[in-house]
Amino acid sequence: MAHFPLSDGRPPWRAQVLTLFPEMFPGPLGVSLIGQALEAGIWSLDTIQIRDFGLGRHRQVDDTPAGGGAGMVLRADVLGPALDHARERAPAAPLIYLSPRGTPLTQQLARDLAEGPGVTLLAGRFEGVDQRVIDEKGLKEISIGDYVLAGGEVAAMVLIEACVRLLPGVLGAAESLASESFETGLLEYPQYTKPREWEGRAIPEILLSGDHKKIAEWRQRQAEELTAARRPDLIRPTRHAK
Ligand code: SAM
Question: Model-level pTM?
Fold first, then answer.
């Protein structure tokens, strides 16, 4: 079934998204390197319309929150069968609910997910989903940041893009990943390109020296200083033996 296996021999990485707005996909995932990888069969994308599992003539998917309050909640008896359908199609893929309450998405989490068979993602809407479906189906909640979006679709795209660019064969040069922010535990050093001077600002002399050892040392120092200034939380405290 794997017509275009990944260069490491795995079958294509598979993303499924349960959504009320399948027309949002592939959207930005259909362009540039990620889109080319989709076309090449390195990964695949399927959407599942939640409304297809809706109830009654109007295919109702939501209802008012138990206990009162504003907004609507996606029903467990709609999402349950939708998730079962998704799980039948991709039994090994983790079931993930994009949620501001979830575990923060990090480079490490993206790497772990990229190493697996793919992901099945539930994009919420309204006030979110009935807690019972999260508990019953064992959904892992993942957040893309401490802010609230209108729906989970954009968050699903963020997660998919972060994973797909790590799949073998997606990025041209393997080394373009090696020094990136978070890959080394640090933010990336500053990058420069031609022209040598722009609006009175010159490229740091060391980068033009041809001395690769010195350049590597300079980049490491820059990465450390930048990380200490902007994201000290990324630098693990040294453990002192007692
Ligand atoms: N009432 C929810 C709360 O306060 O936690 C927010 C619901 S939000 C308006 C609707 C949907 O957007 C959520 O069900 C979730 O799927 C998605 N969403 C919103 N913010 C998100 C975030 N930071 N990360 C991942 N998904 C998010």
Answer: 0.94
